Prior knowledge:
Strand content: 25-35%
Order of helices and strands: HEEEEEEEE
Amino acid sequence: MRRKLVWNLGLAALAVAALVAVQVLTGTVTPPVVASPPPGGGSTCEGDAKIDGNISGQQKCFARCVTRLCVKAGTGVIDFTSNGSNGCYTVSGLGTNCVTVSGGGTGPTCKSISHVAYFFGDTCTPTPTPTPTPTPTP
């Protein structure tokens, strides 16, 4: 009986290891960057502007260009310096003054967003302005 249990646990561990290896090799899972809390408590997710609460899916606009942001969720801090996803949270609009953060709360590793901190740069990449099309004169 004990030998059968050890055999089944070994097979289960092998299956989990194979699943993780496939996800890492195919790039379908990117582990989040988690920062440890600063000495004396507090959050490492502090920036030029901070919005408390779960703002998932809401676009936030500022007078200055957002160049970086961090998401505080559970005990984790996830830092984004470019648009994209880490498997739990997705960021779009970095490099502009309007940014959207979405995701979280879908499982044991994807916690609900506690707050988002925004970091500003001097200028945003300018959006090309279309040249006016000529209108015919009567």
